[in-house]
Specification:
The protein is mainly α and 148 residues long. The protein folds into two domains: 3-88, Hypothetical Protein Yqey, Chain: A, domain1; 97-146, Arc Repressor Mutant, subunit A (Orthogonal Bundle). Helix content is 76%, strand content 0%. α1 packs antiparallel against α2, α2 crosses α3 and α5 crosses α6. It starts with a helix and ends with a helix. The relative contact order is 0.10.
Length: 148
């Protein structure tokens, strides 16, 4: 089952159970995916692109939580915090720290990176292999730590 099919099923289930918070989050996600489909002029998106959209939405929520907390709006931050786990339920299981470190070390060897100047190449290689199972920020920090 593709992620789009799973999203449709989850939407129906949320409607039937009258879970309004989950329903609104799923509708926002479906809308974001719909905009991407229109932008790419296609009816379906591969799971990899859907995962990228979901990650972008999760990142938006985290940034919004941070901004709302700085602005003294805990009720809005709370709403955003509730949306994050709903979105993350559609993401693949994240890589463990050890597995991610192995991926980074392998990418460093494959690219032949010797210093911080080749950091971009290594990050790109790791992101391709991680396929949405690790955040870019975490990958970047780990690459920076492991490169001399």
């Amino acid at each position: 089952m593709t992620l789009l099919e799973r999203l449709s099923q989850e939407l129906k289930a949320a409607m039937l159970s009258k879970d309004t918070e989950r329903l609104s989050t799923l509708r926002l996600l479906k809308s974001a995916i719909g905009y991407a489909q229109i932008e790419r002029k296609t009816d379906t998106l591969p799971d990899a692109e859907v995962i990228a959209i979901i990650q972008k939405e999760v990142k938006k929520r985290r940034e919004a939580v941070e901004q709302f907390e700085k602005g003294g709006r805990p009720e809005l931050a709370s709403k955003e915090k509730q949306e994050i786990p709903v979105l993350e339920s559609f993401l693949p299981k994240p890589l463990s720290a050890e597995a991610l470190e192995q991926l980074v070390r392998a990418a460093i060897q494959e690219t032949g990176a010797t210093g911080k100047k080749q950091m971009g190449q290594v990050i790109k290689a790791v992101q391709a292999k991680a396929a949405g199972r690790a955040e870019g920020k975490v990958i970047s920090e780990l690459v920076g730590k492991l490169l001399p």
